[in-house]
Amino acid sequence: ALETALWCRYCLDTDENGQELLLEDESAEILKSWAVSVFAPGSETYDWPDAFGQLASDPEFIKAFDEAVRSIATRGVSATLTSYIDGNAEHTPAGQLPNVGT
What we know:
The protein is built from four helices and no strands.
């Protein structure tokens, strides 16, 4: 879920300093729209692109994704990744990717 939240942040097509990132994907507009809705202040609901399939309805994944997005939005990418690497449970998004379809 953390990886997906980081990718979602990337899909905003700017980094945290406002520098433009190149999002080369045939679904770039859909992904950017999704990312904007996810990172919008007070956002609690958003539509998942079709590419996520069953993950988009998995409550454990969604909870972990939302926690990761909140951490990235409030603490930043670097601090979120540092907490994850250091195993700091207080600031690390919870959950593992579920075994969907296996």
